[in-house]
Amino acid sequence: ANKLLNHPSDVYGICVGGDAEYFKTRISEILYESMKYMGVNIPVSRKDINIIDGYVGRGYALSRPEELRFIQFLSKLEGIILDPVYTGKAMYGLAEEIKKGTFINHKNILFIHTGGLFGLFPQGSLFEF
Hints:
Elements: H1 2-5, E1 12-14, H2 20-38, E2 50-52, H3 65-78, H4 87-100
Parallel strand pairs: 1-2
């Protein structure tokens, strides 16, 4: 969308399943099919796709204690409910990357909460409220 609108913002994905190479390939395929469908041709290279690896944790739907603590902390602090399968891991990854200084040159950061609340219910016993 940034290339289509000639917007200078950076968009990042935080990988919580698979790896960055898989998602760069998949996103490239989706972009190609979308542009073909819309009848537009915008040059997009793999370098334009920003994926941050390292937040798969123990695997699909298997959370680490630090991820669960973060999800619980954020829910108490901000009232934002995250699931431990995808969105919680992604937000945890964002928080860790902010601590590392990954976004030091970025003025505003927007996290898009994609849902997943129902992934919280089967794992409710992992949380202490």
